[in-house]
Amino acid sequence: MAGRRAWFLSALTMLILVAWSAQARASSGRYNTSATRLRGARNVHLVQHTHDDPGWLKTVDQYHYGSNNSIQVAGVQYILDSVMSSLDRHPDRTFIFAEMAFFSRWWREQDRAMRSLVRRLIKGGQLSFVNGGYVQNDEAASYYVAMIDQTTLGHRFLKDMFGGDVVPRVGWQIDPFGHSSTQAAFSALYGYDVQFFGRADYQDMKRRKERKEMEMLWRGAASFGDAADVLTGNFASGNYGPPPGFNWDWGQHDPQIQDDERLHDHNVDNRVDAFVKQCDALFNVTRGNDIMLTMGTDFTYANAHVWYKNLDKLIHYVNKDGRLNVFYSSPQAYVRAKHAYKAEWPLKTDDFFPYADCPHCYWTGYFTSRPAAKGYIRHASAYLQAARQLEAQAGRGAAKGANTDALWEAVSLAQHHDAVTGTAKQHVADDYNQRIAAGMAEAGRVVLAALGPLVELRRGTMLSVPGGDDGVNKMSDSTGRNERHVIDRHPSAAMGDGQSVENITSPESISHADSTSTPTCGGSGGSSLGCYNEWLLCPLANISVCAPTVESTRAGTGFTVAVYNPLARARTHHLRIPISVGAVEEGKVGADEANVGAEAQRKVKSRRLWTVQDHLGTPAKAQLLPISDATRRLQAAASADGTVVSRSAIADAELAFSVDLPPLGLSIFDIQTTSESDPTAAEHTEAASLAVGHDSMMRLDSGGAAPMLQFSGGRLQRAAVRGGAVDVKLDAGIMVYNSSAGGSDGSIPSGAYIFRPNGSEFLNLEAAAVVKGPVLNEVRSSFHPWVQLTVRTWTNAPHIEVEWTIGPIPFDDGFGREVVVQYGTDLNTTTEFSTDSNGREMLERVRDFRPTWKLNNTGDAASSNYYPLTTAIEIAEPGRAALAVLVDRAQGGTSLQSGQVEVMIHRRVLHDDWRGVGEPLNETACGCRDCGCDGLIVRGTHLLTLEEPAKAAEIRRRTQQEVCDAPLVAYLPHASTRRWGGAATATTQDESRKEDVLPDNVHLLTFQDVGNDELLLRLAHLYQAGEDPELSKEVEVDVMAVLRRALGPRRYRTVRGIEERSLSGALPLKDVSRLKWKAGASLSAAEDLDAQDQITGVVDARAGNASADRTDTGKSQPGVQGLVADVFDAEDPIAAAKDADEPQAGDVGLAAERHGPVGCSPSLCGQELRAKLGPMEIRTWAVTLGKHSVAVSTS
User: Fold this and answer.
1) Tell me, what's the pLDDT at 478?
2) Helices (DSSP H) in 603-748: which residue ranges?
3) Which end of the chain has less neighbouring CB within 10 Å, N or C?
4) Can you name the residues that pair with 345 across neighbouring β-strands?
C-alpha cells in the first residue's frame, strides 16, 4: 500500500510539474497569452498567416527556395521552418496556411522529426489549413473544371498526408481581383462553412461599411437555392494585411513593442492605444462583439520569432488594459463565434465583378492580358481531361511510367491568380508555360499509349499493343530523335486544335510529335518521312505546321488520322489538317523569308488529289483550301524566331472534312492519293478576291443547319438560321482602344491589371477574299497588315466561326493598344446582356449599373462595364433572337450599345499600372521585353450562335462543350504509297457504343485514375434553373452504366465499391456537415436603390424566380441591423457552434435526402446506382478497384 501511495504521489507531482511547465510556456514567461473568447467582452481574434503567391515577381520555385532575391526577398521554405519552430515554443500560438503548391514542396523535404512535429501542431489546433487548394485560383479567368481540379489536388494532398479531418472548412480567396458566384457555390460544395476575401470595389465597400454589411450570406448559384449559401467575409481593409502600424515582418518600419521601462523609447501605452483605435474602427463596420485581424501579408514570417514575440506582448498588454479581449485564434473559431449569434445575415445574390480600387482604376484589363497563355492554359486543361479518360481506360501503368500527374500539377499552378490572369512578370509567365509544356509532353505519352488498344487494322499491319516487342508501328509520341526538342519563344504556336502557345520551353524531349524540326532518323533532304512508324501529335496545327501530315502528303504517301471524343455524347467535329498539295524543294527556312506559304506554292511541281475514307472505307466529303495570308504570317514568324526550323513541316494547304465521333470513342480516317477520275476526291477550292467598299452582295450558305450569311463589299452584313426563322443584321469589325499613359498628376495608366482607354479607333476593311466549297465557306478579311478576321461556316454546323489573328500590335509610335472585336446587330437589347460565371451560370448584366450600390463611373464608360468572359457573352431581344459569342479562352467583354457585343482579344501597353508587377505588358515573339523582337501574334476563335431566345440555351451550351472539350487528334504517316490492308476499325465504334452515355444535359466532367486503385468520377448538370423548358429539369443517371462504358469491360470487372464524395473528392459526402445560416434582407433591396427599382427587378429575378420550387429564405426576412445587442453575446457560443456542427438535414449540400444512399459496392447496388442531378449540380464519386473481379455483368 505504501509503495502504491508513493507511486501515486510521484505521478501527481510529475503531472503538476508538467502542467506548470505548459502554463509557463503558454504564458511565455512574463506574457500571458492564454486568453480565449469571453462573453460580454469585445473579442479580437488574431489570425496569423502568410499570403504566398506561387509565382508573381519570381517563379514558384524561386519563391520556395528564396532565390533571385534581387527582385523580391522571399523564401517560403524559411517561412514554414520558422513558423513551426515558433509554434513549438508556445502552445497558445496559432498559424494558418493556404497554398499547397508550397506546403507540398516543403513537406517533401522534411525529415521524420519535423513531420512528427507538424502532425502534433495540427492535432493540437495550432496549425490549420484554409482553402487548401494547390493555389488560390483566379475567379475571372479560370474555367470551372480547372478550379475544381486545382482544389482537388490540394485537398487530396492534405487528406493523404494528415487525414480527412484536416481538409479545410474555411475558404480563403483573399487576393483574387474580384470574386465569382461560382467560387461561392463551390465553397459550399467543398464543405466550407465560410469564405473570406480581401478585394472588393471601393464604392461597394464604402456603402457596406456604413451599413455594417462586410459579412454577408452569399447565394452563389440561383439554381441551388439556399442549399449552397455560404457566409462570406470581406476584410474591411480591402486587402488582407495587419492593421496599419502592426506589421512586424523583418525589414518593415512599424515600431516594435518596447516594454522595458529601463530603456529609452518605452512605448507600451502608445502601442496599446493605437491597437485599440484600429480595433474600434473595425468594430464600427462589423456586426457583433467579435472581429478578426489578419496578422500577416505577402511572404511574411520568414523570421516568425519577431512576429510572435510582439504578438505575445500585444496580447498581454492589451488584455491587461481591459478595453479589449485579444487572443490567438483561427478563422474556424471566429466563424463558430459568429454562428452562435443565431443572427440573420444580409443576402448577396450577384457577384463582385468588376473590381476597382479607386476612381478610374478598373481591374478589367487582366480579363484579356496574355491572351496566348490564356488559350494555352485552357487547351491544356481540356487535354488533361481527355488524357485522364484514356489513362483510366488503359490503366495507370500502360504508358511505361508516364502519367498525367505532371500536367495536373502544371494546369493547377496556372490557375493561380497571377498566372492565368497574365499579371506576373514575363520570366514567370514563361515558367508557367514551360511547366505546362513538360506536362503535355508526358501526358502525350499516356495518350498515345492508351490509343493503342483502341485502334486495329483488319489485317493487323498498323499496330501492336503497347508493351509488345515486335517493334513495328508502335503507338508512340516520339520520332526517335535523341536531341533536345525546344518549342521556344513563339507565343502564337498552336497546341492542338486552334489553341495558342506562349513562350514554351521544354526542359526535356517533348513527347508530342515533332512538327518543327528534323528527326535524326533521316530521310532525304532533311525529310523525316523515312522514320515514321508511330502515331504522332501535332502541337502546331493551328498555324498549319505538322510534319507527319505535310511530309507524307508531299511524298504522296498519305496518312491516317485518329480522333478521340472525350464527351459522353456523340458529336460532329470539323477538322482542318495541314497538308502539301504537291512536291516542293526541301531545305531550311531562313529567318529573312517573309512569306513561307507563298514561296512553297510557287515551287509546286504537281498537284495531287486526295480522298478521305472512314473506318468502313466509306468516302467522306472533303475540301482542299489554300493557306490564308494570316496563316502565312504566322508560319513566317514561327520560322523567324526558331520555332519552325524546317520547311518540310510547313503546309501550303489544308484538308477540311467533318467527322462523326461516338461518345467516349474513337474514329479512324484514311487520307490517300487518288486519281482525277475519282468522284470522291477532295474538291480543290481557291480564294477569290472581293471588291471591298462596293455594294456588291454575296450570300454564303453551307447548307443543312449552317447559318446563311450575307456580305456586302466584303463585310458581314446579315445572318439567318433555320431558313430565315431567325434573321438579324450582323456585322463583325475591329476597334482599337488607345491605352492611357497615365500622367504626372498621378492618373493611372493601362497596364497588366487595369484597362483605362483614352480614345478608340475603328479599323477599315482593306482587303477580303472568299473560299467556297462543299465542306466549308469562309470570307478572309484584312483590316490592317496585323489584323485579320476569317468568318467561316461548316456544312450542317449550327454556329458561325470567327477566327481572329492579331499582331504584332504596333508599338513604335509610343502608344499602347487594346484590340476588340465588335459584333453589331439590329436587336433591341437596351442595356442588358449576360455573361457566364466560370462556364457555369449565366449572369444578367445591366450597363452602368450595379445591383447593390449606385455606380459612379464618370470617365470610365468602357472599363467599368467590362466583365470576365470565361466562355460566353449573350444579348437577346425577347421574342425575336439571342446572339451568343463563345470564346476559346478567358477574355473581357461587354455590350456598350443596344444590340452590340465587344470582346477584347489582345493587349500591348507601354506602362506599368502601379499594382506591383513592375513592368509593362509588352509581349514579344522572343519571350522578352524591350529586346527589339517583334510583338506577339495571337490567333483564336469565337463561335457565334443565333437562335430564338427560348431555344438559345441549348445551342449555346452544346457549342460551349465543342469549344471547351476538343477531341484528341493523332496522326500516322504512311510509309509508302500502298494502301493499308483494309480500312481501320476502332474497338469503340461498334454499333452498341454509338448511343450517348449520358443525357444531353449531363456532362462527364472527370474520369480520373488517381492511383492506389481509386478512380474519381464527376457528373455535372449543364443547365441552370429556368434556362431551358426541358433541359433544365432534374435528370436521373445510372452511375454504374456510366462506369461500364467509361472503363470498358476489362477494367469494369475490377470495380469493388463506390462512395459519393464532396466536390473535391476528399471527404465522404455522408461526413460533410456545414453550418446553417439565416438569410436576412437582400443587399439589392436597400432604400437608397429605390430609384433604380425597375432595373433592380430585372437583376433580382435571377435570384427569386430561377427555380419555381425553391424557397428563398431571405426575401421577407428583417435585416440584421435590427438585432439587439445580447444576440451577439450567446450564452456559450463555442458550445452552441459545436452543437450546430452536428449533421443536420440539408447540411450535406444538394445530395442530402432525395438522392438516397451515397455509397455501395456493385453487388450491393444490384449493378445499379441511380443518381439524380438538378440544374447546375455536380456530383462526385470515388470508385475503388481491386485485383480480382466481382460478379458484375459487363453487357
Assistant:
1) 28
2) 629-640
3) N
4) 1079
CA distance 1114 to 1121: 14
Q: Give yes or no for a contact between 366 and 357, defined as CB atoms under 8 angstroms apart.
A: no
Q: Looking at residues 1170-1179, what average pLDDT do you find?
A: 97
Burial class (CB in 10 A: 0-12, 13-18, 19+), 463: buried
Helix (H, G, I), strand (E, B) or coil at 1129: coil
Question: Mind listing the pLDDT tens digit for each residue in 824-838?
Answer: 999 999 999 999 999
Neighbouring C-beta atoms of residue 828, cutoff 10 Å = 12
User: For residue 1049, is the peptide bond before it cis, meaning its omega torsion is within 30 degrees of 0?
Assistant: no
CA distance 794 to 658: 9
Q: In this structure, is the dihedral angle defined by the CA atoms of residues 252, 253, 259 and 262, taken in order, positive or negative?
A: positive
Beta carbons of 438 and 507 less than 8 angstroms apart: yes
DSSP helix/strand/coil, 971: strand
Closest CA to 1098 of 876, 809, 799, 772: 876
Query: What is the predicted pLDDT for the residue at 1089?
Result: 56
Strand order in the sheet with 194-197: 170-172, 194-197, 230-234, 215-218, 344-348, 1078-1082
Dihedrals phi, psi of 715, to nearest 5 degrees:
-105, 140
Confidence of residue 17 (pLDDT cuts 50, 70, 90): very low
C-alpha cell at 760: 478608340
Rounded distance between C-alpha atoms, residue 52 and residue 67, angstroms = 15
pLDDT in tens, 381-394: 999 999 999 999 99
SS3 798: coil
Contact criterion met (CB below 8 Å) for 465 and 457: no
Instruction: State the burial class of residue 12 (Cβ atoms within 10 Å of its Cβ: 0-12, 13-18, 19+).
Output: exposed
Q: Amino acid identity of 932?
A: G
Helices then strands, each counted (H, E), the chain = 22, 50
Which cell goes with 626?
489554300
Beta strands, E only, 385-523: 455-457, 493-494, 500-501
Q: Say if CB 204 and CB 239 are below 8 A apart.
A: no
Position 80, amino acid: L
Are 732 and 791 in contact by the 8 Å Cβ rule? The answer is yes
The amino acid sitting at 974 is: H
Phi first, then psi: give them for residue 612, nearest 5 degrees: -120, 130
d(CA 206, CA 126): 35
Mapping DSSP onto H, E and C, the string for 709-762 reads EEEECCEEEEEEEHHHCEEEEEEEEEEEEEECCCCCCCCCCCCCCCCCEEEEEE
The radius of gyration of the chain's CA atoms, rounded to the nearest angstrom, is 31
Which set of grid coordinates corresponds to residue 1147?
447540411
Q: pLDDT: is 541 or 585 the higher one? A: 541
Could you tell me if 1096 and 1084 are in contact, meaning their C-beta atoms sit under 8 angstroms apart? yes
DSSP 8-state assignment for residue 1036: E
The Cα 1167–Cα 1195 span in angstroms is 11
**What is the C-alpha end-to-end distance of the chain, expressed in Å?**
75
Q: Residue 938: helix, strand or coil by DSSP?
A: strand
C-alpha to C-alpha distance for 944 and 956, rounded to whole angstroms = 9
3-state secondary structure of 818: strand
Residue appearing with cell numbers 479562352:
889
Q: What is the separation of C-alpha 633 from the centre of its chain, rounded to a whole number of angstroms?
A: 30
Q: Give the angle 430-436-438 at the CA atoms, nearest 5°.
A: 105
For residue 842, what are the β-bridge partners? 836
DSSP per position, 281-346: HHHTTSSSSEEEEEE--BT--TTHHHHHHHHHHHHHHHHHH-S-EEEE--HHHHHHHHHTT--EEE
Query: Is the C-alpha dihedral spanning 954, 957, 963, 966 positive or negative?
Result: negative
Answer yes or no: are the C-beta atoms of 449 and 976 closer than 8 Å.
no
For the chain, give percent helix, strand, coil, nearest 5. 30, 25, 45
Q: Is 274 exposed, middle or buried (0-12, 13-18, 19+ CB in 10 A)?
A: middle
CA-to-CA distance for 445 and 872, rounded, in angstroms? 33
Q: Going by DSSP bridges, is the β-strand pair 571-579/559-564 parallel, antiparallel, or unpaired?
A: unpaired
